[in-house]
Write a structure and sequence with these properties.
Blueprint lengths: L11 E6 L3 H6 L7 E5 L9 H14 L6 E5 L8 H8 L6 E4 L5 H17 L8 E6 L2 H5 L1 H5 L5 E6 L1 H8 L11 H13 L3 E4 L8 H14 L3 E4 L5 H7 L4 H20 L4 E3 L2 E3 L1 H16 L7
Parallel strand pairs: 1-2, 1-8, 2-3, 3-4, 4-5, 5-6, 6-7, 7-8
Antiparallel strand pairs: 9-10
Length: 299
């Protein structure tokens, strides 16, 4: 049995170019659950060193006030991989996002280096998590093996742009071409007890398209979605906000479960329907999302 990943809110994770001082300085004020400080695609080769320094200093100096601090480093197949880890791990990010992950070996190597750096910097070994970014056909085939390759892996995340390029297809507004990939990533992540995070919606001017894709992400089972602009955060959060009817039902389920536990009852029913552990877990998740959305919850 796999261990369920530690729960932290990951409805939205905002990409921030690691070579832009102003954006890095202000990244935690936009209301995203997490920030993705990017050393990879957003940074030109000539600016990698400067971005690495800027991001590592920001992790040390800036107050993030509970916002998850994630750094997307460069992939294992690049010459920047180890230098990124050597600069970033001592600054204690919450998570490393590893792009171009294609095999368990990519995770194992990252885990090995991170562990060495944690030990060398008096950081509890295993405290820095990994988001494995799946961006190729091979990565999808190996998704479950990647998810279970290290306890550090707490999330699988889909890289839609690179996957489309690898498959030789174009991304559409509707996203039909990525439906199988999305579903596969979710199944692999859930089977491993990890979270699944959706890819970005690239058109910052298409609010309706973003809303539709967010609804799909929620419906399929993604825990959250990456954003490329602060204007997308509110839309993503609204998609994860439960409606009043669903929240009321969730509260009733959780209350019934607590009452049954107090009375030593093993079986409960709500509205004439049997309620088991998965239903209670889903109800608790609904309540968690409601609280994050600022809804009033009385238990």
């Amino acid at each position: 049995m796999t261990k369920t990943a530690r729960r932290r809110p990951r409805r939205s994770l905002l990409y921030v170019p690691g070579n832009n001082p102003a954006m890095v300085q202000n990244c935690s004020v936009y209301g995203a659950d997490g920030v993705l400080l990017d050393l990879e695609d957003a940074v030109a080769v000539t600016e990698k060193d400067a971005a690495r320094h800027l991001v590592s200093q920001a992790l040390v100096d800036l107050p993030f006030d509970g916002v998850e601090k994630v750094v997307r480093i460069n992939g294992r197949d690049t010459r920047f991989f180890e230098d990124d880890l050597k600069a970033i791990v001592p600054a204690k990010p919450d998570s490393i996002r590893l792009p171009k992950t294609e095999s368990p070996e990519d995770i194992v190597e990252a885990d090995r280096i991170i562990s060495e750096l944690e030990r060398g910097n008096d950081i509890p070994v295993g405290s820095i998590e990994i988001h494995a970014m799946l961006e190729t056909a091979l990565a999808l085939i190996n998704a479950y093996s990647i998810a279970t390759s290290s306890p550090r892996v707490t999330a699988l995340t889909l890289g839609g742009q690179d996957l489309a390029a690898d498959l030789g297809i174009a991304r559409s507004r509707e996203g039909t071409e990525l439906l199988y990939a999305r579903s596969h990533v979710i199944l692999a992540a859930k089977a491993a007890g990890k979270e699944a995070l959706d890819t970005v919606f690239t058109d910052v001017n298409d609010q309706e398209g973003l809303e539709a894709e967010c609804r799909l992400a929620v419906q399929l089972g993604f825990s959250g979605k990456a954003a490329i602009h602060p204007s997308q955060i509110g839309t993503i959060h609204r998609a994860y906000r439960p409606n009043e009817k669903k929240l009321i039902k969730a509260i009733r389920v959780v209350k019934a479960a607590k009452d049954a536990e107090a009375k030593g009852l093993g079986v409960i029913a709500v509205d004439g329907k049997m309620v088991d552990a998965p239903v209670v877990a889903q109800a608790n998740r609904t309540i968690e999302l409601a609280k994050l959305s600022g809804m009033e919850v009385s238990l």
